[in-house]
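[Q] Does anyone have a clean structure-token version of this?
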Amino acid sequence: MSEEVVIFDDVDVVFKEKKKKAVHAVNHVSLSVNRGDIYGIVGYSGAGKSTLVRLINLLQRPTSGSVTVLGDDMMKLSAKELRQKRRKIGMIFQHFNLMASRTIADNVAFPLRGTMPKDEINKKVSDLLELVGLSERANAFPAELSGGQKQRVGIARALASDPEVLISDEATSALDPKTTSSILELLKSLNEKLGLTIVLITHQMEAVKQICSRVAVMDAGAVIERGSLLEIFAHPQQQLTKDFIDTTMQLDATLKAISKQPAVQSLGPKERLVRLTYVGASTDQPLIATLYREYNVTANILFGDIQSLQNTPFGNLIVVLNGEADDIDKALAYLKAGDVTVTNVKLAAEED
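[A] Here you go.
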């Protein structure tokens, strides 16, 4: 059984201001993060995800409920014990938080002051900069670095105290897509090399798709859906989750383009426009050929896409099925029995 290194047990965070309505920033959340996870917590701005993760190192105290990290109830720790525990919890931020007047090496060394001899600090800083690919920039200043390089410095600094848990709070939000991808790959490699448990806070489902093993979706302070990456992408239950995934898959743009195709502008009574989502072993099956051979249903493929999630194939097809209504129903039942998710597609032009 996997070891749970972070446990939220029915945690609430309520902010109260004079003459203002109380804000329920975190609403009865119970959640656990296993050792070695890259756990993505995704939601739009104001969903409560950043407040939730600040409970891990007790930068934010819960109004009620408990937070257990690496076996200790954080609320029961003394001030000294809390300081020691926080050394096991690294944190990287959206805006880097580097000291402009200090060199890159000095920024990374800052958390190590007074913890070991200077020569040991220098050796450790050198190793950390090599780990994040910045050995040659040790004597540079933050203003001389790109955004991606600054974030690598932030990651090196967060690793200085040898944490077991690393919190990434919107760490890629200020970066361009190519740099974002390189930072995410760095986090993934650190997870594998160092056995780091990473909690990734983001509003970018693309970031979750690239490196996360498990996902929780937050809205209005509550976790509305959770599961493995494959479960969430293949079988999303909540509309917000579906919206996040569709945005990542650029489905809206795809459907807009498809709506202009003659094949869908005047569907006949024997035609049906559907989206097929399939994962893992389902991708190995000759689905379209089987529909025709067994059910006399033809499929006109308008869009097809296959990607890899955690080294598992994940695909989407948008097709026009043609056949007798009963045959189409039987064909769709066959697909569903084979763990293919079938969604009736409604084009924008059809709305209202």
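[Q] Thanks! Anything notable?
[A] Residues 177-194 form the longest helix (18 residues).
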